[in-house]
Amino acid sequence: EAAVAYARAVGEAPGQAEVAAAAAARAAEAQAVEAAKAVRVAKAEQLRQLRQLREQKRRLQEQKPLLEEQRRRAAIEDQRRLFEEAASRQRQRQAGGGGGSGGGG
Description:
With 105 residues, the protein is mostly helical. It is 88% helix and 0% strand. The chain is built from 2 helices and no strands. The model has no long low-confidence stretch (mean pLDDT 86).
């Protein structure tokens, strides 16, 4: 009805206005369908990324105990090495009689 009233106001034939209104309605519907499709695609992409992040998080959680064990072993190894170096220096001091500047002759 509004399209017919508008057509009369601008001097077009009522039939032409209805055809134009129907075409505009079809175009708007097609745009709405495309927009809905784009939203579905975007949501699917978000879901895919979310799944990817969850999988990445799960893998990291699985690796965490292994990394902690590696870190613990490395710390133990560092302590052992430091202890051995200190013990070696101690043995050298005892064997060398206090070390020395080496005299020369």
